[in-house]
Amino acid sequence: MGLRWGVLGAARIAQKLIPAIAQAGGQVTAVASRDRPRGQAFATTYGIGRVVSYEELLADPEIDAVYNPLPNDLHLPWSISALQAGKHVLCEKPMTLSAEQAAELARVAAHANRVVFEAFAYQFAPVMAEAVRLVRSGAIGEVRSCRGTFSFVLPEGEDFRWQPAHGGGALFDIGCYPVHLTRLMLGEPLAVSAQGRWTSSNVDIALHGTLRYAQALASFQCSFDEVHHEAFEVVGTAGRLTLDGHLFSNVGEVRLRLNEQEQLFPYENAYARMVSHVQELVTRSLEDQRTSAAAAVAQGRVIDALLQSAREQRAVRL
Fold it and tell me: Left if phi > 0, otherwise alpha if psi is -120 to 50, otherwise beta: which for 295?
């Protein structure tokens, strides 16, 4: 089922989603922008028919769904406004800045009978589906440890990811990926601990964390001031699975190794698969729709606990 989409803002990340919407059978009919010349340039580049205000986009009865790629602190208010206007919402990660906010958003979505989905596109890549299937099927035995990393150098400046008021920080931006993948494979942790390096304005430049399970330990690291690196490893009682390449950023190939076997997965637009999933959710049961919102709440609980642990220098139980 193809939907008619509106995009809130002309953010750089939206450039990935607009072609994906078309590939998934949808149509971007309008982009909202506070900066009309910038919005018009964006619309011209991507063949979008109209540039409107945020309020006009949400009031448009010809728009079924909204993509929200705004700075992190604007995810909650504009996603709520979109849901209350009768739109389905695909919101960039982190969907909100806390589990409490995510739960509020889930309640609004349920009341409006609309889908809200956190945009972790990477999970829809074929390589990720295969990796999760292998781990869950016992291909490496019982999992005993996971290790994930996502880092790149983000020049300091006016980028909202350096600004605490806008929900900046390495954990919200990139550390959330290995945390999310760990949860996909192992479920919810019992406790977490973390240590971070912070700017003078209290934004985490880097964070190293541990998620504790009954029979496994999972660790991850993320950084805004280390060379680009994306990798994930799962070790079990009967084998080892590793992922290297653009596994989280979804801009290139990914190498999957299962013990001595190796497979190279070429780039495939996971964003298109994600959009297709969201469009299918619209036609499913209310239970399926609420499960997608609940997943964001669960992710938020773990992120909350990791930040609390890093700031208070103690383990936090969930």
Answer: alpha
- The per-residue pLDDT for range 120-175, each reduced to its tens digit, is 999 999 999 999 999 999 999 999 999 999 999 999 888 999 999 999 999 999 99
Residues 6+ apart with CB under 8 A from 257: 240, 241, 242, 243, 244, 263
CA 141, 233, 238: angle at the middle one, nearest 5?
20
Instruction: Name the β-bridge partners of 7.
Output: 31, 67
Which is nearest to 176 in space by CA: 270, 306, 274? 306
247-275, pLDDT tens digit by residue?
A: 999 999 999 999 999 999 999 999 999 99
Residue 50 is predicted with a pLDDT of 96
Gap between the Cα atoms of 264 and 257, Å rounded: 9
What ranges do the domains of the chain cover?
4-121, 122-272+301-317
Cα end-to-end distance, the chain, whole Å:
38
122-272+301-317 CATH pick, 3.30.360.10, 2.60.120.1440, 2.120.10.80, 3.40.50.620: 3.30.360.10
Residue 267 is given by DSSP the state P
> Quick check: do 4-121 and 122-272+301-317 share a fold?
no
For residue 233, is it left (φ>0), alpha (ψ between -120 and 50) or beta?
beta
Residues labelled catalytic: 93
Per DSSP, the three-state class of 150 is strand
Q: Domain 4-121's class? A: alpha beta
Tokens of 177: 């990926």
Residue 108: its H or E element: helix 99-112
pLDDT confidence of 287, banded at 50, 70, 90? confident
pLDDT digits (tens, 9 = 90+) for 56-110: 999 999 999 999 999 999 999 999 999 999 999 999 999 999 999 999 999 999 9
Listing DSSP states for 197-261 in one string gives EE-TTS-EEEEEEEEE-SS-EEEEEEESEEEEEEEEEEEESS-EEEEEESTTT-SS-EEEEETTE
